[in-house]
Amino acid sequence: MKDYFGREAHLSEKKLWLLDMDGTIYMENRIFDGTLEFLSLIRARGGRYVFITNNSSKSVEDYLTKVRNMGIPAGEEDFFTSAQAAVQLLQSRFPGARVYCQGTASLVEELRQGGIDVRLDVEPVDVVLTGFDLELTSEKLRRTCQILTEQKNVAYYATNPDLVCPVSFGYVPDCGSMSVMIRNATGRDPVFIGKPEPTMIRIVMDRFGYTPEQTVVVGDRVYTDIAAGVNAGVTTIGVLSGEATVEDFKVGPCPSYLFSDIKEILCAIQTTAS
Ligand SMILES: [Mg+2]
């Protein structure tokens, strides 16, 4: 089956499917037509799917509840979030560090469960970490700005560079936009952890023992999902069910294939399966 650009999709060798969630398999609480059939086909063909998300406002536990309510079969090992990537990065690069966190209670909890020494007040720290904070207040922003201004040598990371997060009526500001506010106040830019960095993709390929040739990334965003796949050297599939338009996908980084939605990818696998 040909994709939007008229390219014949070669997907029969693919075993590890790294799927974005928001805008790719569902929109907020509405699962897309074809998602359940797509996921069950991957497993029936001996493959594995892992949901990879830049969204650090929810824990894996939160996501498990959400997708199970939609009827999606999944366990903890089927998710990898930018919060988990943050834990891994902090443990390896800053063992024992004091980490000031501007994020949701859920993110703070996940960091603490991962053994990170999280601080929430203005005090001497080694690292500042900001996430997609749906509980953001001006007091929190003030504390973050004070630490970044007064502690010149503090390392500064943010979970994900997404500017906006899709919701039912349009978009709300995501971690990338919150970072812009902080830059305007402090002059400091974070090092981002999630997509488009290839880190999350590489960790999951390693964990389950798949090669880049066996791996494919599916997502609705050019500058995070597709860019991460390109940076990791794997096949990428863009979908038009979320943020990016055909024009965005043409500007690039261009995905290996472009389909209208998950249902069309399902058809593409079925027609190349035999
Ligand atoms: Mg998305």
Structure characterization notes:
The protein has ten helices and 15 strands. The protein has 274 residues and is α/β, with parallel strands linked by helices. The protein folds into two domains: 117 residues, HAD superfamily/HAD-like (Rossmann fold), CATH 3.40.50.1000; 101 residues, Rossmann fold. The strands form four sheets. A six-stranded parallel sheet has the order 5-4-1-13-14-15, sandwiched between helices. The protein has a five-stranded parallel sheet with strand order 7-6-8-9-12, with helices on both faces. α1 packs parallel to α10. Bound molecules: magnesium ion. Magnesium ion binds next to loops. The site of magnesium ion has 8 residues, from loops.
- Which fold name corresponds to the CATH topology of the largest domain? Rossmann fold
Looking across the biggest beta sheet, what order are the strands in? 5-4-1-13-14-15
Distance between the termini: 12 Å
Number of helices: 10
- Determine Rg (CA atoms, Å): 19 Å
Structural class, from helix and strand content?
alpha/beta
Please indicate the count of domains: 2
CATH architecture of the largest domain: 3-Layer(aba) Sandwich
SS strand fraction: 15-25%
* Low-confidence residue ranges: none
